[in-house]
Amino acid sequence: MKRYWAVMGLMMLLSGPGVAGTILVFGDSISAAYGMDVAEGWVALLQETLKRTPGREHDRVVNASISGETSAGGLARLGWELATHNPDWVLLELGANDGLRGLSPEAMKTNLDSMIRQSQATGARVLLLGMKIPPSYGPRYIDMFYRIYPQLAEAWIAGWYAAFTCH
Question: What residue ranges in the chain does DSSP mark as E strands?
Fold first, then answer.
């Protein structure tokens, strides 16, 4: 049921003027549908929903997500994905593995910032999907982690979907 609402929220954010032609989903195991049938993952549900939406039937969703991906890994391969697919939208769903590994929130912010900049430089619009991490990481780390997504969205005037995952 959560996947259904995530897809509906994304549809609302992607609708309107400047509708997408190609949507590049760039994420980790959440987007790669790790541990489940890929056809049941949220990216496949998004593509199915678009096909049933008048005026969006020809939109294409490219899933370039890799299970276990960190923001550093994503940054290293984003340029190729942008050049290959020339997306109108980039749905950036990274950061959870950085948080789960206790990596530097500042390094994650720098990596995500670079990915937003690269995507926008190609003319793509960016939707940043905020990640959550378990409370066991402590309030200081969690606070630093959670602040990154709204800060980047505001700095780059990018779309932001606050709590794409829950802990």
Answer: 22-27, 60-63, 89-93, 125-129, 159-161
